Structures are given as C-alpha cells and as structure tokens.
C-alpha cells in the first residue's frame, strides 16, 4: 500500500477538484490509499457526490486553511491545525508516504523543510517541476524559494533530479545539463563556472554540459539544473509565452469569415497536438530530498491533474527514490 | 545627416542581405548616409545588383572577417582590418554616428567597450534587445556578456533603458520593472533585494516594482531590468518556446485532411497576427552607454530587419540619446 495525504483545501478550485482527483486516483491504482486532509464537513459533502471504495479513502480533520497570500513562515508556525501542517505531520509521523497539495507554494516549501525535514546530507530540498518539450518532458530543478544557491547545492540537485527522471519517469541514463548563456565550458556566471567542473567530475550522472535556454523546449536535456531564481524565470516565462502565443493564434483565427471556417476545421487536430505540450498529465512538482515526499500541484489543478499527482507518488515509493538519494549522497561523501 | 557604418560581412546571410538592407534604408529616409564596411570587391558586386543614390552609400574597405565562433577578445585584438574593428573605428573617430552589425555578439560587445568606449560614468554598457509582447514591444536590459552585475549597474540600465524607450520608441513615461520571482518587495535574490530600493528612490524613472517572468509577454512593463545571465535566459527561452509552439501548431494542422483544409483557410490571418508578435520590425538591439551607437541585429537578419536597424539609429541621433544619458548620470552623481 502507498498512503498519500492529500490537501483537500488548497488550490484555486477548492475541495471539489481535490476530492474528485482522490476518488479517480484510488479507482485507477489498487495500491493507493488516500487520506483527505481538511475540514471534515466540507470534505464529507464532496465525497457524498462520488461512489468509491470506502476502505481506500479516509478523512483527517484539519480546521484551518493557509491562504496563498499569507507569509509562509508565519502561517506554518501559527496555523497548527491547517491542512498543510496536519498533512505534512502525517508524513513526518510515517502515517503517510507522501503529501500532495495545490496550496501556497511558499507554505509547502517552508513546511517541507520545517515539518517533514531533510534527508541527512541534503543541503537544500529543490522543487522540481516537469516542463513540456517537443520530445516529452524535462525536469527543471530548482524552482523553489531558496535563491542564491551554492555550487554544492546544484550538484545535489543534478543527482536527485537524475534519480527521479530515471526511476519515476523511466528515462534511461537521463541527460543532465546546466543552464548557461553559451555552450562553451568557459561561459557563464561565477556560480555556473564553479559548478560545471564539479558536475563533469560526477561519475553517477550523465552530464552533457551546458544548455542554452533556447534548447530547453526542444528537449535538449532531461534534467535541467539551475538555481531557483533562474528556474523560476524559466518556469513562468514558459507559461507566459505559451499563453500569449496561443492567445495570438486564437485571435488570428477569428479575424475573418474565411479564417473562422478554417478554425472550425483545424480545432480538433490542434487541440490534440497542443495537449501533448502540457506537462500536467505527468503530475505535480516534487519537493525532493525530504524524509518522505511532498508534491506541489498547480494552483489551478483540475481533478485529472490531482489524480496524476497522487499516482506519481506510487512510483516514488515503489522505486525507493529516497533510499537511492541517500545512497548517492553517502557515496559522494565517501569519495571526498 | 546621420552617418551609419554597416558591417557588410556579418550575419548568416552574408553581404547580400546587409547591402540590400542598406539600399532600402537610404531610400526610406533622406537623412541617412551609409558606409558599407567590408571587402570592397564583394560589396561592389552586391551593390551592382541595386539602383540607389550614389551619394548616400560609400564603401570602406576592410579585408578581414571575424567569424561567430572566434574568441571575441582575441579577434578584436588581432583582426585590425576586420569589418567590426574598422566599422567601430569609424564611430570612435566620429566619422560615423553609429555602427550596425549582424556579426559575432561577443566581438560586438568587446569592440563596443574597447574601441568605441563608454560614456564617462557608465559602469557597463548593456545590450538591450526589444522583445515582442501582446501590447507591442518591451526593452530587455541587459542581455550582454557581463554577468554577475552589481546593483549600481542595474540602476544605470534602468535609466538608460527608460531614456531609450521614451525618446527612440516614443513611449511616454515608460514603466520600468525589475525581473523577480514574486511581486512583493521582500522577494528576490540578494541582487534584486539590494537593487529594488535604489530603483524606488530614482525620481527620473517610472519604477513600477517587480515583474514576474509570466507577465513579460503580456506587456507588463516597458523596460525590463535584469542582469545579463537572466536576460539571456529570457531572450533565448522566448525564441525557443515560440519556435516550438508554432512548430506544434503547424504539425497539428497537418494531421488530417480536415485540418489541412482548415490550415489553408486560416493561414493568411494567422500569418498577419503572428507577424505582430515579432520584434525584428523595430530593429536590432542597441548597446547603450557608448560614445556613439552600436546596434546588434539578429544573425539571421534579412534586408528588412537590417533596414529597420539602420533607421533606428536616426531617432537615436536626432533625439540626442547619449546627451540625455550623460545628463542623467551627472544628475545622479550630483544627488550623491
């Protein structure tokens, strides 16, 4: 069994999509058991709308809710009975293997470190979303809140990301690259120049060198290593350029009668292709390096994305990702 | 008269597009005089294909060519008779007001500093391309080679960028924002946190605060301030995501007979809309803060983009941008 605590209160769509996603997840995978964390009566009312195996879903009451705009450190400290604090507490106490939330990123990042805690030896837990590419998906590591990283952090990100892509996403010898402003080894800022030779010296990852941002959407690497400020810019610009261009295409199609007729004919094929350029079907962003697993799903997740985020926790547990991370860090320490 | 030296040898398409662009530029604006810099015989052969006012175009011989892959510092030092070194020398000697090149970015950045030289008080000359947005264009400053910038550099970038957007692009009180990972003032890495209050204290710019990368394509600010590593990532990811998505749309339209017919109907309208999401019609990227103007156009520039890059030098000279930059720096110095 894989026991997954799900934050029923987080996300733009509130409990309805979180509960629906949980119901879909337990129906899809027999080994999943979900603990829905949040206000009992609200969750109960949502559950009543579905038919599901009662043995697979339990409710854990948590009366408070952390809002997106709340300062995270304060929220985690003060709201002891919030769905995030209670859900992460279940992971801490080993009553759950993973925690999935669509709530405040800041609170999830802080809670992951403070409540769940880091694996011994992990300097910083990176948030690593999957981003869509022409060839599938790549892991962008780190997009968390810990900016101004050091080279030793980036080396750990590369190793953890590589383990995740190989064993959860099933990519053999994932290509690891560092985000840079040119392909040559001598290019880059101080951090990249310091990190590059360290990554090159790692025998347990398939380091392919620098990647320019232009090559990321073409699928130029499987694990894209960068510090969180750059990662955040990449992630958000991806969304922004995508949304703007799709908006332009739609607007362009509505400019004349001719193009409107064309749009009707093109629509189904276009929808299918653009769907392939959507990472949400792979699940949410794992916060790696913790004593347990925390997954952040998009704030605007619908039931299907919530389901995928829950399902991805199964491979994480069954493939013993944290044990592999621990082994990798110990091996690195011995080499020193 | 505005005298503009044009590197006839740079760019992926070689002399043909550079020369054609120069011919179009002098035909479009009577006050433009072009000095085509490069191998005399090659330029002569290209010019022979066009009809143009012989008083408006002269050829300045330069026998060497700097290739894109050459290490820039070395190339500038060794190839004294290259089109870039000779062209920048014309600006240095005040025989030209500006230099336009589609050649090696690295060599242009190095040459700008070493040959043309900085305006007194300018700490670093930023490379500032225009990027397309839903609402027109924004200036992304800095995308140059000088990474690991300091906060004082970013403040100068903001001022120079603001002057450029107001007086060359005609945007009144351009909105200046700093790239950040959240909208709140306390967010950011060390550099952004240090720069934010300095920008806030500037009375001569319209500072609107932080901008998240997601808002850039929506036209959230007119002048987007960042250090060069982040700027480079933004610029290249813009290109990469755009190319990938347009590729997906095209592929999607070719998947069935129905969608192929639709594509034929949609094509002209779509082409017109996507053209509006293309910054090249505004010209190239100015390298600001130099004793003269250096403009870097895309390596793959066609005649039309070369023409626009030449024409943008006219407003730069007529609006006395460098005098305005000088005044702004002196005012800032007095305030200290």
How would the blueprint of this fold be written?
Two copies of one chain form a homodimer.
Chain A: E1 2-7, H1 15-28, E2 32-38, H2 40-47, E3 57-61, H3 72-78, H4 83-92, E4 98-101, H5 105-116, E5 130-133, E6 136-141, H6 151-167, E7 175-179, H7 190-200, E8 206-211, E9 223-225, H8 228-253, H9 257-276, E10 285-287, E11 293-296, H10 303-318, H11 321-335
Parallel strand pairs in A: 1-2, 1-4, 2-3, 4-11, 6-9, 7-8, 7-9
Antiparallel strand pairs in A: 5-6, 10-11
Backbone structural class of chain A: alpha/beta
Name the chain pair with the biggest interface and residue counts per chain: A-B, 62 and 62 residues
Q: What's the assembly state of these chains? A: homodimer
Mean pLDDT across the residues of chain A is 92
- Beta-strand fraction estimate of chain A: 15-25%
C-alpha termini separation of chain A: 38 Å
What's the number of helices of chain A? Answer: 11
> What characterizes the major β-sheet of chain A?
6 strands, mixed
Helix and strand run of chain A: EHEHEHHEHEEHEHEEHHEEHH
User: Compute the gyration radius of chain A: what is it?
Assistant: 21 Å
How do the strands line up in the largest sheet of chain A? 3-2-1-4-11-10
Low-confidence stretches of chain A: none
């Amino acid at each position: 069994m894989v026991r997954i605590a799900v934050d029923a209160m987080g996300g733009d769509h509130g409990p309805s999509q979180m509960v629906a996603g949980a119901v879909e997840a337990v129906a899809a995978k027999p080994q999943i058991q979900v603990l829905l964390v949040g206000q009992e009566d609200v969750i109960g009312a949502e559950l009543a709308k579905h038919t599901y195996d009662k043995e697979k879903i339990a409710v854990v009451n948590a009366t408070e809710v952390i809002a997106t705009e709340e300062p995270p450190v304060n929220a985690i400290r003060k709201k002891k009975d919030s769905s995030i604090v209670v859900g992460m507490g279940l992971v801490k106490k080993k009553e759950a293997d993973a925690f999935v939330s669509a709530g405040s990123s800041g609170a999830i990042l802080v809670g992951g470190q403070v409540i769940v805690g880091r694996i011994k030896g992990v300097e910083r837990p990176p948030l690593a979303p999957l981003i869509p590419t022409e060839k599938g998906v790549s892991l962008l590591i780190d997009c968390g809140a810990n900016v101004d990283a050091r080279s030793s952090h980036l080396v750990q990100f590369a190793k953890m990301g590589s383990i995740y892509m190989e064993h959860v996403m099933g990519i053999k010898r994932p290509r690891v690259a560092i985000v840079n402003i040119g392909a040559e080894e001598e290019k880059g800022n101080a951090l990249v120049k310091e990190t590059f030779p360290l990554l090159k010296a790692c025998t347990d990852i398939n380091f392919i060198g620098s990647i320019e941002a232009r090559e990321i959407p073409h699928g130029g690497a499987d694990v894209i290593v960068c510090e969180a400020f750059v990662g955040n810019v990449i992630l958000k610009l991806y969304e922004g350029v995508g949304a703007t261009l799709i908006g332009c295409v739609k607007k362009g199609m509505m400019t004349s009668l001719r193009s409107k007729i064309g749009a009707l004919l093109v629509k189904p094929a276009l929808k299918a292709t653009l769907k392939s350029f959507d990472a949400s079907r792979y699940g949410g962003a794992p916060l790696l390096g913790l004593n347990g697993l925390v997954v952040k799903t998009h704030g605007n997740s619908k039931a299907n994305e919530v389901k995928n985020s829950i399902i991805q926790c199964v491979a994480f547990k069954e493939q013993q990702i944290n044990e592999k991370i621990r082994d990798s860090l110990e091996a690195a320490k011995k080499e020193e």
